[in-house]
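Aggregate trends can hide what the representation actually does to any particular protein. The sequence in question and its structure tokens are set out directly beneath this paragraph.
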Amino acid sequence: MRKNFYMLLIGIMTLTQLSAQNAKRTKNQNSYIAKDFSYLLGLTKLDDSLLKMHFKLYHGYVNNTNYLIQEISKLANSGKALTYEFGALKRRLGWEFDGMRLHELYFSNMGGKTTLSKGAPLYKSIVKYFGSYENWENDFKATGKIRGIGWVVLYFDPAQSRLINVWINEHDLGHLATGDIILVMDVWEHAYLTQFGLDRGAYINTFFDSINWDVANRRYIQYRNIGHPAY
């Protein structure tokens, strides 16, 4: 399994380098710009070498998103919107974009040193819909141990003002329509394999030790207060 992982990693890194070259050639004012998460180095229990590798993979998603948007636009503007190439690139865009955005949310909700306060609105909502914080945490961690690669996302459903833990296949399959993302955990192998080997549970526990609950609670308050039209 490790051999296959490293072969995949080499492929992704190569794609990232090619995408970076394309990004330099085609960058414009509408391009997405990779965020700097280097402040996490030394701030979590994840190895700095693991995080640096992960940052490079994230940059690849940003570059690929920009490249796809530009290439799709070129095809559309040249009268090739009904071509196979146009359709293939359109299908790929959601995967790359979600890979970019999920990584941003994941890195952003790490770097904390404290637990979720019992007085926090997010904590109270968790207890309301899961019975207790412990029930929610067990559910979230169990979701993270589902066989396969993907993400675990704590969603806020604005229609019912409730919280739901969700498994996301890869990047783009399994999202809840109209759902607002509160907390994200990456459970692709590249998020933990070089430090924890096959012990995903150890990685998940380390992730929980590093959650920035201020960020997660702020996201919850923001989405709860926005309000949504009737569905």
About this structure: The longest strand covers residues 150-157.
